[in-house]
Predict the structure.
Amino acid sequence: MNKENRIHNAALRSKVMSATEAASLIQSGMNVGMSGFTGSGYPKAVPSALAKHIMDANLNGKRFKIGVWTGASTAPELDGALAMVDGIEMRLPYQSDPTCRKRINAGEMEYIDIHLSHVAQFVWFGFLGKLDVAVVEVAGILEDGRLIPSSSIGNNKTWLDQADKVILEVNSWQSAQLEGMHDIWYGTQLPPNRQPIPLVRSSDRIGEPYLRCDPEKVIAVVETHAPDRNSAFAPPDENSKKIAGHILEFLQHEVKKGRLPRELLPLQSGVGNIANAVMAGLNEGPFENLTAYTEVLQDGMLEMLKSGKLASASATAFSLSNQALAELNADLAKYRERIILRPQEISNHPEVIRRLGIIAMNGLIEADIYGNVNSTHVMGSKIMNGIGGSGDFARNAYLSIFMTPSQAKGGAISCIVPMASHVDHTEHDVQVLVTEQGLADLRGLSPKQRAKVIIENCAHPNFKPALSDYYKRALEFSPGKQTPHLLEEVFGWHLRALRGERM
Ligand code: COA
């Protein structure tokens, strides 16, 4: 293990201990703010040591559970390890770990799904209770005690400020070249004293490259040398390529109409393979000098930075496959000026998103014929991941685009349904809906006009006749109503799926 010295502050160096010793300082019942946003910048050693500690306590008949607050999803060494030993009482604000998901849906773990931009301020407001401990990965510690952030920022600034005690993991695997890439703004205030956030271009730097932390609060420093862990992206399939094609055509049309500049507006791209495929499409498309103001920087965006299509990217975390991460780390100095990592309260801030005029592109589980979108709950009840930043962006974007394959589970389920079984984004925040079948531009359309366009352009041919029939009968049943529905049968679609039948 190559552990170069990254701790240049003598007082903090004197607090170095093992992960097991550090984990033993966390007590059952505590709320713990962990770093981490997707598989980046999460603590690699203390959570696993804590999981072992919890398992030992359980074997001795003691209940040991903590509250786990993060930036967003993390990795198996954090969410997976703690969920495996049933050590999480309350999880927030976003997860995508299979064991967590199973425990949440089995009623064994409480979960609050919060807009990512809300988390920091909710902690400052005192809405979520007391934050006892922060466990934060950093890439190094300066002589004066300031911290070089790691490969994600997430809520680290808030955790370090608000927690009573701090445990630092100093990970020498993280590239030393990360220094200077981050932009931490310390100008946030509580209402009524808030000031405008002075960010007017997506590439602006408004803060400082280091995190501050009162050294008196630091109770342990743990040295690690462990890689981030993100999953690989699937190569774009036919459906993703078609979705990307529809979006590209639409953006070109908007430029032609004069509603978008030639270099577009800053792009936000959600999580997952489809979002990544759209970036691949843009990389081959006609647009130049693009910018991104987004949450995570995935492989597709790195490719665009490499090709020069993307001039700059602002995010709160890297979310790269191992291969892309290796490429980035090998050449990080080259990208340092063009990539900015910010706290998620800024990367996802409604004020900034509205000012910059973002083009938001996010995935969904189901959309209904009137344009309401469910991003989180399968069959209305079972959590998939969480809303993440999709609401922060969709509600405030210049253009809010949602995309999905038209069918799921081998064609058994239609992703276009009469009524969404759970709503994360209302019809008011959904301007464009895209499936591999086509694109529905919902701007300026009433609910009844929207229903026709969504069924016609987005539904799979296997489900189009049934959706058209539903809509026709809903119109007959409630002539003239603003949003016609047949309440007695509207969730029959989901009930059939729950019985294992085709929707
Ligand atoms: N009913 C049941 N399952 C469905 C479904 C539906 N209507 N639509 C999709 N699914 C399932 C898929 O079958 C797949 O399941 P699997 O993992 O068992 O194969 C899973 O949901 C993911 O779907 P996929 O089509 O691969 O899309 P994706 O990777 O783009 O993910 C979301 C889609 C909605 C789950 C994902 O975008 C998400 O979590 N969004 C919310 C957060 C967000 O938007 N963040 C970005 C903000 S910056």
